[in-house]
Design a protein that fits this description.
CATH superfamily of one domain: P-loop containing nucleotide triphosphate hydrolases
Order of helices and strands: EEEHEEHEHHHEHEHEEH
Structural class: alpha/beta
Largest sheet: 6 strands, mixed
Radius of gyration: 19 Å
CATH architecture of one domain: 3-Layer(aba) Sandwich
Length: 253
Amino acid sequence: MKPIIQIERLDKIYHSGEVDVHAVREVSFTAQAGEFVAIMGASGSGKSTLMNILGCLDRPTRGRYWLDGEDVSGLDRNRLAVIRNQKIGFVFQGFNLLSRTSAIENVELPMLYSREPLTSRERRDRAMKSLELVGLGARASHHPNQLSGGQQQRVAIARALTNRPALLLADEPTGNLDTRTSIEIMGVFQQLNDQGITIVMVTHELDIARYTRRTVVMRDGRIVTDLPVAERLHAAQEIARLTAAEAVIKLAP
């Protein structure tokens, strides 16, 4: 099975006046189809720069990057834009939904820029399937201000899935959410991963990383550890535990 992500000896150097800033140093990394990987590290560790390269938002200074078997290291901006639209779904800390647009219309947006010819009916059907996949089919006509933070993030995830990408990239997707809602969103990611979707997520929260299957830790632009998650948390069990604890509190005199 060919890897979805394969990078070899990747460097990213930013030039600031007479100073060269090595954001990423000699990074090699492979992710197979169906993996769920957390990238962790302190501020300045290089994780965000690496995520930008993985998402074809930036190009490496040196090294090679194959995405779903295609070498994207030296592609021009136009070709990278096509790759992003066809092969990558993005989920960010901010939901980035259009406020005057319904959930289903927000999910349809990426298909308007797709090279795949789709009728309006096909776009609507695919968007609805994406919303149903994240448990929001009944909220398709709601606008963002009618949805909770967790529901808005589910819409954002559905939007990221609508072009059927090879890779889902999530950058601090629980950063704006409370603990319970964060666990619920990680449950959505776990369900998607169980269906074979490859997910790479940047997070600074160790508890959130424990819902994934593999943790990559960066420091000073390098990968310092790359290990499977030893004790994986399961979102459904954690929600049940929180619910039981809240019930006990309510019953307490």
